[in-house]
Amino acid sequence: MYTLSKNQQIIFDIIDKSPEPMKAYSILFNVQKKGIKAPLQVYRALDKLVEIGKIHKIESRNAFIACQNSSCQVSKATAFSICESCEKVTEINNSSLSKYLSNFKDKAGMKYSKYNLEFFGLCKKCTTK
Amino acid sequence: MYTLSKNQQIIFDIIDKSPEPMKAYSILFNVQKKGIKAPLQVYRALDKLVEIGKIHKIESRNAFIACQNSSCQVSKATAFSICESCEKVTEINNSSLSKYLSNFKDKAGMKYSKYNLEFFGLCKKCTTK
DNA sequence: AATTTAAATGTTATAATATAACACTATGTA
DNA sequence: TACATAGTGTTATATTATAACATTTAAATT
Ligand SMILES: [Zn+2]
Ligand SMILES: [Zn+2]
Ligand SMILES: [Zn+2]
Ligand SMILES: [Zn+2]
Asked: Which residue is nearest to nucleotide D19 (CA to C1')?
């Protein structure tokens, strides 16, 4: 089990507490009181946290969310649902889906080592509005 | 059938001819001889081309590729394979996959209107190197 | 054909996201 | 201790994307 460094811990904590995905510069703003002053300090921590699977990047939003499973086999297989109205993002944990995608092979015979899936739609709340 | 405007056509053509995904500022550089001088002219055309499904954005790469199917039901269901070594990107056209994903429902009962899937790995060429 | 409306264009400026380069510090381990 | 590896701090800069506004073109309606 990996021990987070000081900056990594600070930045993980703020993402983990956030109810929604956080953007890098919003993270930066929020950790300035803790002595983290430069974008690069944030991006370096983000890179590491993504690498070890503690957080995921929501690519379509350039934002980061704490892993809601158990560090997702170190981020090799991720799936999210994204509400296009309220921007709520939920990590999908569905073994049928992950099995299907992990075993998927395309015609070109390419073997995949990783995937990222983003579903878009309206969440329950936003549907009934 | 939608008729492309002048800028849309210029920008679609250059993406369509490219063997690899193109980034916005690389597109800009390449169309400056045709009178398109500003980023915004490129981004506006890209937005429209994505909207009508003529091109797709590869989110993990901030790059754009011409649709290799038939405008993908106006971009509602996209899947790509990406080689992490040579960066070759191929659009996946697999009816089993698209059926599976289009019918997927999560536990929260959210109904999805769109998805984007990116697989990562090594292409055949890069595997045998 | 003239009028109205919507879509697209041109332009300048600026916002938001991300990395390069370099000096230094902490931590683990031989 | 000596060495290697990972993390930090800092300044500067690169890359990606949008705001705002004036104008033009194309399409639809009268
Ligand atoms: Zn996860
Ligand atoms: Zn919602
Ligand atoms: Zn397509
Ligand atoms: Zn390759």
From this structure: B40
CATH number of A77-127: 3.30.1490.190
Concatenated DSSP letters for B5-66? Answer: -HHHHHHHHHHHH-SS-B-HHHHHHHHGGGT--SHHHHHHHHHHHHHTTSEEEEGGGTEEEE
Q: CATH 3.30.1490.190 occupies which residues in chain B?
A: 77-127
Nearest CA in chain B to A123: B110
Query: What does the pLDDT look like over B14-45, one tens digit per residue?
Result: 999 999 999 999 999 999 999 999 999 999 99
Residues linked to residue B119 through DSSP beta bridges, in sequence order:
A115, B81
Mean pLDDT of A121-126: 90
| Residue-wise pLDDT tens digits, B45-59 | 999 999 999 999 999
Q: What residues does CATH 1.10.10.10 cover in chain A? A: 6-66
Question: Topology of domain B6-66, per CATH?
Answer: Arc Repressor Mutant, subunit A (1.10.10)
Rounded, the Å distance between the CA of A24 and C1' of C16 is: 10
Best of A102, A105, A106, A127 to disrupt the B interface (most B CBs within 10 Å) is A106
Q: What is the rounded CA–CA span in Å between residue A108 and residue A111?
A: 9
Confidence class for position A71, pLDDT limits 50, 70, 90: low
* Proximal ligand: closest to the CA of A86: 2
